[in-house]
Amino acid sequence: MLSHLAKFVLTRDAPERSATQQRISSLSLLLLLFPLLLSLAPAFCATQQTPLDLDGNVVNPLTKAGQSVVLVFLGGDCPISGRYAPTIQRISREHEKDVRFYLVFPDRSETAQDIRKYLHDYGYSIAALRDPDHVLVKQAHAQFTPEAAVFDAKGALVYHGRIDNLYASFGHARSAPTTHELEDAIQAALAGRPPSNREVAGVGCYISDLQ
Amino acid sequence: MKQWWSVAGSCCVFAIAMGLWAGILALAQTTSSRKRNEQLTFNRDIAPIIFQSCARCHRPGESGPFPLLTYEDVKKHARQIEIVTHTHFMPPWLPESQPLEFADESRLSEKQITAIKKWVEEGSPEGNPADLPPQPKFVEGWQLGQPDLVLSASKPFQLPASGSDMYWNFIFPLPIDRTRWVKAVEIRPGDKRFVHHANILVDRMQNSRQREKEPGSGFEGMEIKIESETFDPDSHFLFWKPGTTPYVEPAGMALRLDKGTDLVLNVHLQPSGKPETIQPTIGIYFTDQPATKFPMLLQLQNDAKLDIPAGDRNFIVSDELILPIDVDLLAIYPHAHYLGKDLSAMATLPDGTTKTLIHIPHWNLNWQAVFRYAEPVFLPKGTTVSMRYVYDNSEYNPVNPNDPPQRVRGGNRAKDEMAHLWLQVLPRNFDPKAGDPRMALQETLARHNLQNNPADFEAHYNLGAMLLRQGKAAEAIPEYEAALRVRPQDTTANNALGAALIASGQPDRATAYLRTAAQRAPEYFDAHYNLGNALASAGDFPGAAEQFAAAVRIRPDDADAHANLGSALAELGQFAEAKAQLERALEINPSHALARENLQEMQGAASHP
């Protein structure tokens, strides 16, 4: 936070004197805000515990130990996310006994209703979560949709990144993928060995408002 | 920040974080008012770029997957926009900047790209509401108003949820009862989010229907070739790509559509992850002004040279053609498949000056398009038009359809390759009395293609057709014979050779070829008609009457067929039936001289036996 403040002062173009004045007044503003927000804090708590299921209940898929978990981050308006629906469903079907799958929608503007429609349109029967505060996004180091994260039975992140290499870059899709990173990582997690890749960047849509 | 968030398990810590943010935001806003002069804002600096270059497709109902019409829309996708504009993936525009400008270039300037990048890096501020330009206005529905004729695909295509690109063809029979002139066509390819491009081909012979499993079912195929046995070259590009506004042909350049013509819509689709129903619609705008200018689509190609070794990263195919007449170049359409890498075309004028007609340094089949020049490009007689295409058949080409790479040759399938360059040219100094100047182009093209590939069926056929049209039947015959050596059973070539033999006074030799054509294609009017003529010339009137009767059955409104059937029946002494046929011919065409003459002669013969 302080680095932001420092950067702010340094990048100003106003004369030195007014800069100092500005800084002082801003600091006093901050001091004023502090007690106010602290007193509001409990009110925030009730609505800020994420991720949520589509009924608004708090769910943390990573707290239940004992089974590997795959999170697949999706964006409702991301065409590459959509195109992966058959692949995601196939992979989840093939591993449903051993792995818990969740679709995670990180876009804050996507409502539970939007997501329900999306699941219906693409024929998904996989549990879906909203992650508007990016709690799971951060735990999975997700940057794009679609992107997958594999956690082992102990809850450790063993792989995150693309599902496969169908897309070489924007607008350059292969006729079929030739590498299958997510499936490789799931098999490695189930076998208790590290996957050949810990992280492979994907091609897709940037998650909005990523901090 | 990352560390801060990773421990943000307690809601109170989280709340403090929010509070600090609020403070920072308050500070940042104070600064922005101070720095207004140099800080870019959405309202003032970015919205004009987005509205001009992105919103046409990025709005509801169009190709873009999400709208870009408001600050919220753009801010949400800001980082994405920064990347895709920086890499020139968006807006999609393949050709490099060049002196010969294209109409509707949708390339962003480096200044605009830099502005977007700077704005995103500065936190994508919204700015002063007073600076925001009005949202662009787009015409809803049909872009040129209600079309004169709207055709809808009779059967939708079900695009599967997964798989690679699909190419589907829809046939639209034209419900017109006479020749009409078309000034514009709007293609509505179905859900635009899944259609990469669409292209209409004019099928004057209803040839494509043979490829449908049942009438109206449509058929699969990336490349379709439509053969026409009369000289009626393709003249207009009817092309749709995302963001296209329908092109209105200039005065005098209307497209001719006849009764019985089919339009074939070739659509390039990409699966979306869920099953999609694609049912395109075409809107046609007629004009009362018949064409007075006759452009032609000229094709350079060298598919015969396409034999690309596996792993070759730099396989070059070139072709060149010397123009036999003065033309204006109106539009250009380069075409290769997935191995195409760098596509270019040049013109070398007789005085030695060169012009880049197009250069696409990073070919991407998904964004193929017809490019129209902002102004016609004059290419005088003697200009050499050349194409140079570079292919990458290595593993480093991410869209290589083969993994591992395999030897690839020219062909029509998506995993074959192509080296095509289409040019829409308008011959200058068109004098209808001097003959159709496009025939000179067609003849040059055919001779040129035969140099590239002596076994080019189409080139032999076309050259034969051009020679026959010029009255050089004796020269046309060997060309048709050469075409038949390549495809002995081809019905149109058998018919054409038969017609050439009749024209050169050899009806006896003609009958065998015409019979082959008529037997192989029982619904082929011309084969029956020509065979009837050949048999009549040889004195076989029963045989001739049989063939003309078949012709009349196929085309009940053809005056010539009725007249000939009447004449053959008269020769056989079947006067009542002959009279009916001749009268029918005159009913269809009251000025049919032959029918009138024969009718009079027959009546004279009947009254003075």
Write a concise keyword list for the protein shown above:
heterodimer; A: 211 residues; alpha/beta; Glutaredoxin; two-stranded antiparallel sheet; B: alpha+beta; Jelly Rolls; five-stranded antiparallel sheet; four-stranded antiparallel sheet; 21 strands; 34% helix; disordered N terminus
Strands ordered across the widest β-sheet of chain A: 1-4-3-2-6-7-10
Main beta-sheet strand count, sense and barrel state of chain A: 7 strands, mixed
Name the strands of the widest sheet of chain B in spatial order.
6-3-9-5-7
Number of strands of chain A: 11
Q: Which structural class fits the helix and strand makeup of chain B?
A: alpha+beta
Q: Could you give the topology of this structure?
A:
The complex is a heterodimer of chains A (211) and B (609).
Chain A (H helix, E strand, L loop, with lengths): L1 H9 L5 H32 L4 E2 L14 E6 L5 H5 L1 H10 L4 E7 L6 H11 L4 E4 L4 H5 L4 E2 L1 E5 L5 E5 L5 E3 L2 E2 L7 H11 L7 E2 L4 E2 L5
Parallel strand pairs in A: 2-3, 3-4, 7-10
Antiparallel strand pairs in A: 1-4, 2-6, 5-11, 6-7, 8-9
Chain B lengths: L1 H5 L4 H24 L7 H12 L17 H6 L1 H9 L23 H12 L27 E4 L4 E3 L6 E8 L6 E9 L6 E9 L15 E2 L18 E2 L14 E3 L4 E8 L6 E3 L2 E7 L8 E6 L5 E2 L6 E8 L4 E9 L4 E9 L5 E7 L10 E9 L4 E8 L16 E2 L10 E8 L9 H16 L4 H13 L3 H14 L4 H13 L3 H14 L4 H13 L3 H14 L4 H13 L3 H14 L4 H15 L2
Antiparallel strand pairs in B: 1-11, 2-10, 3-6, 3-9, 4-8, 4-11, 5-7, 5-9, 12-21, 13-20, 14-19, 15-18, 15-21, 16-17, 16-19
